[in-house]
Amino acid sequence: MQLGNSTTSLILDTGSSDLWVMSDQCTTGTCDSSTSVPYITQPNRRSGGEVHMKFGDSKTRTHAAGPVVFDTVSVAGISMADQPFAAINETDSSAVLNGGAGIFGLGFPSQSLVEAAVINNKFDKPETTDVFVANTASAGPLIARMAMSGELEQPMFAITLQRSTVDIGGNEGALTVGRLPTGVDNSSLTWVPVRLYGPAHGGQDPPSFAADEVYPLRWEVPLEAVYLDDEKLPDTNLTGDVNAKGLSALIDSGNSLLRGPEDVVDHALRMISTQFAADPSADPTFPCSTPHSLSFQIGGQMFPIDPRDFVSRGDATNCTARLIPTDAPHRAHLHSWSLGAPFFRSNLVAFYFGNLTHPSVDPPRIGFLNTVPSNAGQLLRDAVQNATANGGRFPSTLEAAPPVMATIHLPATPMTTTPPPAPTVHTQLRLGLATGSTPSPRQASAASSSFASSVWFSVVLSFTVGLSVVVF
Q1: 466, containing H or E segment
Q2: Which residues contact 386 (CB under 8 A, 6 or more apart)?
């Protein structure tokens, strides 16, 4: 991605909404250890606002802080002038290590601290959300601005991640903006609605010009059940401080693991690790050569994790699962599960914004396409055998993003395309909401500069970027 005159690699993060990059003013130990290209700050590009962003759950908290600046931002052949983003001068996040320089947040405007800082500074902390919603096209997150500008063929993007250890390969690591990847048809995906949050449940207040609208907070979908080795896992008894109706999952590319309710995760680890079953204080190890299948039922379909993506990297004899506990649901965070990088290595995931000002007109939704081969278990056994014959450790690779590819179509006349199918009314009715206690940035007129986003960083993964843009 190019930000002003700086070109650098960023981590794709569907669990947060803001674009931020390490600046040349960052002198923390984490920044000093970074080999990434920093953004060169210029005082005349500052917005006057600042952000202090918090990431992760209560066990994995990191932060990033700095001024909000405006500059031209380009990705895959398309540029947005005066794009607001955070030029970070203080962080302890590993997002600036391993070849990366920050985060490319791909979430909804309602969770954007950068947009909130811009609006609050420009309009002196407005008391309603009218100006927030009305100004998303000029001050919102990058992909949301592209979608609202009408430049994209569809208001959407899709992600697949490549396996970087155990058995390197699988999906091509790619971000596709404005359409589905070449060769992928709408009908091959399972489309489900994104959860909407009313004000009583931690969502933003609707603007006066759309008083009946309810808005999404993050890429969160209904989750019908979770299975381990074809056995349905029990429902969680941990509901936190809310009475959430229905199980849901955050689809979070910035999370390097799979995270779930502590009681359910403990149950799953006891199923696969005799050592952990006998002693809960022991490491939950199991033989790497024994394939395990963790599957998520979404929209009536099963989406398994490839056994090669379920195991940890390193020792090819005794493995641990890429599955850990996370916080119980709480207000504005009603999800019980967070499906991170292992899920994206096993599935193509398409994110459709729909209508960002009037969601009821064109609701947001997510499409899923499983890519796990039928012989994945045998492929894991083969990978273990190869690793055992070559020193006993799995191979591992790390590549920063290569140069991008862009395809820009300029039709002579306006054109229309078919959007992803809307979820059925039956499916939409499953989206339950609940109560709790922390406002989103747009609920508070000052848009508090501290917000805990459900994201846990992974190392930079190799990906290519393809962009199909239609200019109307």
Answers
A1: strand 464-470
A2: none
Q: What is the C-alpha separation between 80 and 469, in angstroms, rounded?
A: 13
CATH number of the structural domain spanning residue 189: 2.40.70.10
- Could you tell me which residues come within 8 angstroms of residue 395 by beta carbon, excluding any fewer than 6 positions away? 165, 166, 168, 387
- pLDDT, tens digit, for every residue of 408-432? 333 333 333 456 766 543 333 223 3
The DSSP line for 50-84 is EEEEEES-TTS-EEEEEEEEEEEEEETTEEEEEEE
CA end-to-end span of the chain: 24
Nearest to 175 by CA among 12, 17, 309, 20: 12
- The boundaries of the domain holding residue 304 are 174-402+421-428
pTM for the model stands at 0.87
Rg (CA), the chain: 21
Going by C-beta distance under 8 Å and a sequence separation of 6 or more, which residues neighbour residue 106? 12, 13, 14, 17, 141, 143, 157, 219, 253, 351
Verify that 212 and 99 share a domain, yes or no.
no
Residue 233 lies in a domain: yes
Give the residue from 327, 167, 357 showing the smallest Cα distance to 250: 327
Q: pLDDT by residue (tens digit) across 324-378?
A: 999 999 999 999 999 999 999 999 999 999 999 999 999 999 999 999 999 999 9
Helix count and strand count (H, E) for the chain: 11, 30
Question: Are residues 68 and 30 both part of a single domain?
Answer: yes
C-alpha–C-alpha distance, residues 141 and 156, integer Å: 13
Find where tokens 């990033």 sit.
Answer: 64
